[in-house]
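DATA SHEET
Item: assembly model
Revision: 1
Owner: S.N.
Input lines:
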Amino acid sequence: MAEILTSQVVSGLATGCVYALIALGFVLIFKATDVVNFAQGEFVMASGFMSYTLLIGFGVPYGLVLLATVVLSGFMGVVLERVVVRPIMDAPIFSIVIATIGASIVLRSSAGIVFGYDVLPLPTIFSKDPVRLGFLQFTAMDVGVIGSSLVIMVGLYLFFKLTKTGMAMRATAQSQTAARLMGVSVKRIFSLTWAISAAIGGVAGVLIAPIVYLDPNLGFIGVKAFAGAILGGFGSIPGAIVGGMLLGVIENLSGYFFNAGIKQVSTYILLILVLVVRPAGFFGAAPVRRV
Amino acid sequence: MNWIIAALTLLVLLGSSPVWAEDGVTDKEVVIGAGLDLTGAVANWGVNIKAGMEAMFNRVNAAGGVHGRTIRLISYDHVYQPPKAVTNAKRLVERDKVFVMMGHLGTPTTKAVKDYLEEKKVPNIFPATLASMWTNSGKWHVGDLATYTDQTGLIVDYLVKERKIRKIASFYQDDEYGLDGHLGGKARLKHTHDLSYVAEVDYKRADIDFSSQAAKLKESGAEAVILQAVYREPPRLAEQCHAIGYNPLFIGPSPIVLAKTIELGGKHVEGMIGVEVYPLPTEPGAFLDQYRADMAKYFPNLPIDTTNLYGYQKAALFVEAMQRAGRNLTRDSVLKAIESIKDWDPGWGLKYGYGGDNRRGMSNAGRLVVVKDGKWVKVSDWTELKEIGRK
């Protein structure tokens, strides 16, 4: 029992880490630009297809594929910001959000047109064979996914804390006007934010696609990650990470203790419960009441 | 003034008068419809069933059609979602005016359009679902191959009698598809072997993670797991079972028997057993030679696979029915023509038969195939399934 439970938690954490990465992408863009980017899941899907093409189509070695995918993903983020978001930056936020939904549909359909709607297996360097450590049972894949995600998260933390650009990004998130007065190029920061978010989505894609297989509908995983971000408190970076991870574990445990139906809705039941008790999520700032 | 009205009435009558009384049938053409999954969770089946049917129709049309009529298939994508299937069915019946629904894919999706088709009196011919409901739902529905219930009966008998396995679990899709075989197997276990499943574990259509299911199956200690699933779930479940050090025998009905399952699962699906209800696409035989030639000619980019052969044999059966119905083609005459098919072999050594209230086609044949060195190969010979399931 205990053994099975721990293996459930470990594999839940692995999926949860991927949710967390995608949720991070949502939150970073939201913090910097007030936009909720509903094409975040499509970054995940697109990067899966990028690495598939490079790996299978061109036979590029895995390490290089990883690097290229992350860079290409980031580039795609910049393009999306330039082409879809920036021209309508002065429009109401609502319009921009709808535009990102449009972008997600375009990306999904394009992938379908180019690659077809068939499910494809994406190779990975992590083995799916079981590993035993005392009473813990997991796969190298689980550990690889959790490890890679943690590296990305720590890297991001250091980037925001220690680098000048990171500080400029935090400044822009707090007050665009003040940041601009301090000589920060807000437009450049916006581009950079989209690039980083998309690149993180790219990492998530390379990690999750080999697990759940690759197809144009992979981007729908973004919906769950979005729920994770809200759970943690939308707009909070630690919130996105904790929310995403928690979601993965809760899903697994509810599937184990109940059935597939409960597993499917557990995410949303939890979300509603948390929002009732703490409307701002776990880590969200309490809303300021304006009198 | 009267002559103007008379002339107009005549014009309207001339313009609109149909040549044939039945929707979808003209002098030169028969239009048939299909709702398929072309972009969703079971798209591999959908895309290939469509290609298989069209490969047969293209050849028949190139030779002048049947009784002077070519066959045109209109298909829409329902993404394996019942609400979309209903919208598509209405579009096919009311706008495109199809003659019959043919090869409609998926149990939950076809169940969703069942009442509508009955209401509109549109025959539901050889739907691409082998749930037992298509063999016992009356006049408007005609099946073609052994049902999931029959197939699961074969699986249960094989496990208990030949493999001496008594701890059997069921992993099933929680809808009309998964439940057909799941409940059929449950009844078979109880009535024939006085056993019951040691675990009943469900999943939802389009789920992509089965770690909790794997854990439950492992805990149950089942030695064999029956997969009432399609092609995406078996490899993933096998992987996740192996990840927690659990290696049962995986076995399932015909929807898991396709090349995709092996492509996705690799070594994790080695030894997985499936039920075949028609020959493998690589076997010898005049009909299969014709199939391979047609696929190579019309769909050279698609592999020779059980999925498109499934559509191809449906189309062959439909063409045979149209031959028998003759020039005077109506929905009733085509249904009667199907009922007149007895001991008909398209040229692969297995016979279809209808008649009376039998709407099961070739439901009396099934055999087991296993994944060996990355290929489906047969393990048993054709078995009579007649006594299994409902009469």
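QC remark: Chain B has a mean pLDDT of 92.
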